[in-house]
Amino acid sequence: MTTISMTVNGKAVTGNVEPRTLLVQFLRENLRLTGTHVGCDTSQCGACVVHVDGAAVKSCTMLAVSCDGSNVTTIEGLANGAELHPMQAAFREHHGLQCGFCTPGMIMSAVDMVNRLGPDLDEKTIREELEGNICRCTGYHNIVKAVEAGAQAMGATGQRVAAE
Amino acid sequence: MYAFSYHQPKTVRQAASLLAKNEDGKILAGGQTLLPTMKQRLAAPPALIDLGKVEGLSGIELKGRSLVIGATTKHVQVATSEIVKQAIPGLAEMAGMIGDPAVRNRGTIGGSVANNDPAADYPAACLALGATIITNTRKIPAEQFFTGLFETALEPGEVIVKISFPIVSKAAYAKFRNPASRYAMVGVFVAKRGSDIRVAVTGAGSNGVFRATALEEALKKRFSPKSLEGVSVSADGLNGDIHASPEYRAHLIGVMAKRAVTAAIGK
Amino acid sequence: MASTGIGAPVRRKEDFRFITGKGQYTDDINRPGQTYAAFVRSPHAHAAIKRIDASEALASPGVLAVLTGADLEADKIGGLICGWMIHNKDGSPMKAGAHPALAVGKVRYVGDHVAVVIAETQAQARDAAEKVAVDYEPLPAVVDMNEALTGKTVIHDVAPDNRVYDWHLGDKAATDAAFAKAKHVTRLDLVNNRLAPNPMEPRAAIGDYDAGNDAFTLYTTSQNPHVARLVLSAFIGIAPEHKLRVIAPDVGGGFGSKIFIYAEETVCVWAAKRVGRPVKWTSDRTEAFLADAHGRDHLTHAELALDERGKILGLRVHTKANLGAYLSTFSSSVPTYLYAPLLSGQYDIPAIYCEVEGVYTTTAPVDAYRGAGRPEATFVVERLVEVAARELGQDPAAFRKKNFIRKFPHQTPVIMAYDTGDYTASLEKALEMADVKGFAKRRRESARNGKLRGLGYSAYIEACGIAPSQAVGSLGAGVGLWESAEVRVNPVGTVEVLTGSHSHGQGHETTFAQLVSDRLGIPIDQVAIVHGDTDKVQFGMGTYGSRSGAVGMSAISKALDKVIAKGKKVAAYAMEASEGDIEFKDGRFGVSGTDKSLGFGEVALQAYIAHKFSGQELEPGLKEGAFYDPTNFTFPSGVHICEVEIDPDTGVTTIEKWTAVDDFGHVINPMIVEGQVHGGIAQGVGQALLEGVRYDASGQLVTASYMDYCMPRAKDLPSFQVGTTVTPCPSNPLGIKGCGEAGAIAAPPAVINAITDALGHEDIAMPATPQAVWQAVQRRLPAIAAE
C-alpha cells in the first residue's frame, strides 16, 4: 500500500492505495465520490472524465498513485454550493441527459472543451470534441445543444471550472 | 489489473536503472494504451516505472533544422504548439487526431513511439519524417526503430528521452479511423523534403508501420494526388479483421495517401 | 397550471441529482461488511465440465468462498426461467433446456457462468477467479443457425435438432392464394443483425441477508424489480416474496437488457446467506458483452405479392431467430408474438403468413432489445415495400400511400386490431419537412462532388402499451401485463405516487408528476414519484415495451379519479353540502351554485383530521390505489425519412438529414418525448450502420469491447428534425400511445433504403459499415460503366 495525497474539489485528501488502484476507484471507493462513473474497460466511454490539474482525463486510465500531489476536480466539485455551473444548468435546460450515467463525464468533458477552445462552439466542433464520450440514451442531439448553450453561458460569466 | 510494484524515479538515470533491475518491468508515461491493456489483464508487468515526476523530459524546441520533442510531451501540447504548427504543421494536426481530447491530455509521444502499437499514429509520422529517436544511450533512426508489432529496437534499460524531427517542406497525415476503436485503420503520413519523399502507413500492416514505396516512387515524379491515380497498393502483408479486409485496407491506403498529399500541398 | 401540466415541456425534476453527481446507482451503494463476487466464466463456446478444482482459489488472499452449480443444487435453488410459453405448429410446447445460474455438467457459450468467487475485495475476487481450475472437455461450437438446425451438435438434450420451436401465425391457404393470383412478387433475404444493448451503466447487484429476520434484500439494475422478486421467489426459490426485497435504485439505461433475471443477481442474493455477508458484483463492459442478453439476430426470407397496379395482396415470411444458448426471461416471445403481429405494418394486407423457427446456438442468450420484435418486423415490411415500389417503377412514397390502411378500427390478418391512426398525414408532413421535392437537386449536387446521395423512407407501426393481460395470457405469457399505482395524499396536500413502472432515463419523476399536477391542480413540486422498491410499491410489472405512459400513467390516472371522488365526499362533509353538488376544478372543491370552496390541501387536511364526519360514514385519510389493465395495445406510428451521402472512395455513409414525424397520441411532455425519439433513432442508426455482435466459428466473441463493437458517437449522427401528428389513443384515459421505441423501430429500414437508393442496387446488409458500402459500390461499378 502506498499513501497518497491530493486536492480533490478544493479539499486536501489522503489515502492508502495499492499501486494498481485507478484514480476512479480512489475517488469512488476511498472518497465515496460516486458521481464519477465507469462505463467501459477500454478508455472509450468517458463516463469517468474528471479534471486533473486543469485538464480533462479519463480517471479509469490513470493510476491513483500517479496523481499524488495533483489537483482533481470531479462532477461533485463543479457547482458552487447550490448554484449550478453554467454547463450543468445547460444540460438540464436542454434535456441533455436521460439516464444520467454518462452525464458527469459529458459535463466534465464539455467544460474542458470550453476551457481549451473558448465559448463559441459550433455543432461540428462539439460533435468532434465529444469523440471520447459515449451516450446511449440521447442520440447526442440535446447534448450538443446543451454544450453549445453551456459554452455561451460560461463565456458570458467568464467562468472556468471551479477550484482550478 | 494484476498487482505490480510502482516506482516513481526523479531522473532518467534512475528510470533506466529501475528498468534494468525489474525484468519485464514497463515504463509508464501517459498510460493511455498500457493501462487499458493491463486492466483487461492482457499485460502483467511486475513493475511500472512512472516517468511523471522525471524532470526535463517534456518540452518542444527548434534546434537548427530540427524540431525536438521531449518524450513525455503530451499529444495536446504537440497539437497546440505554435512551434510545431510553424515548423511541421502536419505533425501538429496528426497529434490532434490521436484518440480523443482526454486521451490527448494524458498520452505522450514517447509512450506512443515506444509502444509501437500497429494502429498508433506517431510511428507513421516518425517514419515518414525520418525522425531520430534519442534514448538515454544512443540515437536510433526511425527506419531502424520500429521492428514489428509492439516491437522496437529499445534494449532493456533503455529509455526514450526525446524525438528529433527534421523539418520538411511539406507534410500531412490522413487517417481513416476504425469505426469502433477510432484507432487508425489506415493512417498515411506523407512528407517531402527536397526530392526525398516518404509515405508511411500505420494501422494496415500486419507487421506494423511501413513505407509504401510504390506510392513514394509515383510521387517522386510529381508531388501531386494525380500522380497516385492508378497506382495500386498490394494487399499482401496487410491486416484483415471484421472491420476491414486486406483488400479494403490496400484501397484505403491509396485514398488516404491522395488526401494527405492534397493536404500537404495546401500547407 | 399550464406550465407544469399535461403538454408542457417541464424541465426534469430528477436532473439535479444527475448533473451534480448525486445519483444513486447500484454500484454507488456499499453495504456494511460487503464482499465482492467475481464469476468464473467459460472460455469455451461448448464444453463438458469434467472437474472444478477451487483449492488454489480458496487459498488465495481474501477469498471467502468458491461456489458452483452443485452448491446451488444442494440449496435447492432453481434455474433461470423463460416466462412465455410458445407452442409449435402441431400444438406441442417449445423445447426449453434447463438454465442453471451456475453451470451444471456443461457450458454452452463463452461467458457462461461456471463458478463464483467471493472475496474481501473486488481485485482479490478477480485474481482468485483466474485460479479456479476447470477441466473442460471441449465440444463443437454451433454459431450458425442453419448449421445448428442440422442437429449434428446438440446443445440441449431436450432439443435434438436445436429447434426451440417451429411456430406460425396467419392464414397459409389464404396467403398461398394471394400469391397464386399475384402479377408481381418481390422477394428479399434479410439479416437482422445481432446487437448488444449497451446501457452505459453496466449491470450490478448487491445481495444482503438479514439473519435476524431471515430476509433478503437485493439491490440491482432492474427495469422491473417486482418481476425480479416474483421470479426469484416463486421460480428460483431464493425466499418467499415477503422475505425478499428488491430495490432498483437509479438505473443507467436498460433498453430491455435489464428486464431479465440473470445468473449474477441470483447468485449474489443467494450467496449473501451462504457467506453471511453482503455480496456485490459489478459487471465490467466485457462481461456485459459476454453475458447481457443480446438483441435481434434473425435470418428471414420474405415475399410480397402484388397486383398489376402495385396493390399488396399478400405477405409470406419465414424467419429463423437465434435465441442463443439458453432461453432468457422473455426471449421466446420476441421473435413470435412481438414480431409476426406487426408484419402488416401500416398497410392493408389481406393475407399474411409467417413461420418462425427459434434456434439454439452456442452464443449468449438473445432477448428483448429496444423495440423487441417490432424493429425486425418493420425492417421486413419496409424493405419489401421499398423494393417493390422500385421494382414496379413507382414512387416509394406514393406506393406506400396507395397501400395505407385508411379506415379504423382495422383488423389485420395477424391478431392486431389497430384502433386509430392517420398514416397519410404523417407521410405528408414528413415529405414536407424533409424537403423531398428538393432532393433531386441535392442529389445532382452530390454527384458533381463525386458523391452518391440517397433517400429512404420508413413508415412504421408498433404495438405498445403492453398489454391486455387476458390477451397475452392466451398467447402464452406467464404474467399479466397491467400496472399498479397508489396515490398517497399527505395531510397538507402534498402527494406521493407509488408506481410499478420503473424509470431508467425516461423521466417518470417529471411526466408522472405533471399528470398529478394537472389533475389535482397542485404545484409539481408538491408531487413525489416513488418507484423501484418492492417494500414501498406493492406490485408492478415494470418498464419496457413503451408501456409506462399508456399503462403506468393510466393506472395513476385511475387512482387519481378515486382520490378526487373521495375528496368530493370529504369536501361535502366539510362544507355541509351534498356530495352531488361538489365540483372539483383547478385544484379546488367547490359547491356548485355557491362561492363556497376548499383547496385541495384543505380537503386533504379535513380527510385526516376527520372532524366533520364519523368513521362510520366515511373512512378517514386520503389514499387510493388502482390496477389498470389495458383493453388493447396502443399503436404508435409514423414516417421517418433518411437522406444519406456516400463517399464512394471510402464507403463512408454520412447521414445528411433525418426527418421523423410520429403519432404518439397525446403527449405529456414534448421535450422528453423528443428526447426518446432522438435516442431511438440513434440506436436504429447504430444497428443500420455501425453495430453488430460477431462470434467467430469457434464461438469466441470477437466484439467483446468498444474496441470492436462500434457504438454511435456524436460525430456519427446529425441533428434530427422531429415533428408529430396526433390521433389520440381511444383505449386509455389519457389518449397516449408510447414513444420509447419508435426511433429504434423506424430507423434501420430508413437508413438501408437510403443507402440502396444511393447505390442503385439492393445488395447491402446491416451494419452497412464503410467496408460493406465500399464493397457494394464496387458491385455497382459495372452498371455505371454500362450507363
TrEMBL record, chain A:
<keyword id="KW-0411">Iron-sulfur</keyword>
<dbReference type="InterPro" id="IPR001041">
    <property type="entry name" value="2Fe-2S_ferredoxin-type"/>
</dbReference>
<keyword id="KW-0408">Iron</keyword>
<keyword id="KW-0001">2Fe-2S</keyword>
<dbReference type="InterPro" id="IPR002888">
    <property type="entry name" value="2Fe-2S-bd"/>
</dbReference>
<dbReference type="GO" id="GO:0051537">
    <property type="term" value="F:2 iron, 2 sulfur cluster binding"/>
</dbReference>
<dbReference type="Pfam" id="PF00111">
    <property type="entry name" value="Fer2"/>
</dbReference>
<dbReference type="InterPro" id="IPR036884">
    <property type="entry name" value="2Fe-2S-bd_dom_sf"/>
</dbReference>
<keyword id="KW-0479">Metal-binding</keyword>
<dbReference type="InterPro" id="IPR012675">
    <property type="entry name" value="Beta-grasp_dom_sf"/>
</dbReference>
<dbReference type="InterPro" id="IPR051452">
    <property type="entry name" value="Diverse_Oxidoreductases"/>
</dbReference>
<keyword id="KW-0560">Oxidoreductase</keyword>
<dbReference type="GO" id="GO:0046872">
    <property type="term" value="F:metal ion binding"/>
</dbReference>
<feature type="domain" description="2Fe-2S ferredoxin-type">
    <location>
        <begin position="2"/>
        <end position="78"/>
    </location>
</feature>
<protein>
    <submittedName>
        <fullName>Carbon monoxide dehydrogenase</fullName>
    </submittedName>
</protein>
TrEMBL record, chain B:
<dbReference type="InterPro" id="IPR051312">
    <property type="entry name" value="Diverse_Substr_Oxidored"/>
</dbReference>
<dbReference type="InterPro" id="IPR036318">
    <property type="entry name" value="FAD-bd_PCMH-like_sf"/>
</dbReference>
<feature type="domain" description="FAD-binding PCMH-type">
    <location>
        <begin position="1"/>
        <end position="170"/>
    </location>
</feature>
<dbReference type="GO" id="GO:0016491">
    <property type="term" value="F:oxidoreductase activity"/>
</dbReference>
<dbReference type="InterPro" id="IPR016169">
    <property type="entry name" value="FAD-bd_PCMH_sub2"/>
</dbReference>
<keyword id="KW-0285">Flavoprotein</keyword>
<dbReference type="InterPro" id="IPR005107">
    <property type="entry name" value="CO_DH_flav_C"/>
</dbReference>
<dbReference type="Pfam" id="PF00941">
    <property type="entry name" value="FAD_binding_5"/>
</dbReference>
<keyword id="KW-0274">FAD</keyword>
<dbReference type="GO" id="GO:0071949">
    <property type="term" value="F:FAD binding"/>
</dbReference>
<dbReference type="InterPro" id="IPR036683">
    <property type="entry name" value="CO_DH_flav_C_dom_sf"/>
</dbReference>
<dbReference type="InterPro" id="IPR016166">
    <property type="entry name" value="FAD-bd_PCMH"/>
</dbReference>
<dbReference type="InterPro" id="IPR002346">
    <property type="entry name" value="Mopterin_DH_FAD-bd"/>
</dbReference>
<keyword id="KW-0560">Oxidoreductase</keyword>
<dbReference type="Pfam" id="PF03450">
    <property type="entry name" value="CO_deh_flav_C"/>
</dbReference>
TrEMBL record, chain C:
<dbReference type="InterPro" id="IPR008274">
    <property type="entry name" value="AldOxase/xan_DH_MoCoBD1"/>
</dbReference>
<keyword id="KW-0560">Oxidoreductase</keyword>
<feature type="domain" description="Aldehyde oxidase/xanthine dehydrogenase a/b hammerhead">
    <location>
        <begin position="20"/>
        <end position="140"/>
    </location>
</feature>
<dbReference type="InterPro" id="IPR036856">
    <property type="entry name" value="Ald_Oxase/Xan_DH_a/b_sf"/>
</dbReference>
<dbReference type="InterPro" id="IPR037165">
    <property type="entry name" value="AldOxase/xan_DH_Mopterin-bd_sf"/>
</dbReference>
<dbReference type="InterPro" id="IPR046867">
    <property type="entry name" value="AldOxase/xan_DH_MoCoBD2"/>
</dbReference>
<dbReference type="Pfam" id="PF20256">
    <property type="entry name" value="MoCoBD_2"/>
</dbReference>
<dbReference type="Pfam" id="PF01315">
    <property type="entry name" value="Ald_Xan_dh_C"/>
</dbReference>
<keyword id="KW-0500">Molybdenum</keyword>
<dbReference type="InterPro" id="IPR016208">
    <property type="entry name" value="Ald_Oxase/xanthine_DH-like"/>
</dbReference>
<dbReference type="GO" id="GO:0005506">
    <property type="term" value="F:iron ion binding"/>
</dbReference>
<dbReference type="GO" id="GO:0016491">
    <property type="term" value="F:oxidoreductase activity"/>
</dbReference>
<dbReference type="InterPro" id="IPR000674">
    <property type="entry name" value="Ald_Oxase/Xan_DH_a/b"/>
</dbReference>
<protein>
    <submittedName>
        <fullName>Carbon monoxide dehydrogenase</fullName>
    </submittedName>
</protein>
<dbReference type="Pfam" id="PF02738">
    <property type="entry name" value="MoCoBD_1"/>
</dbReference>
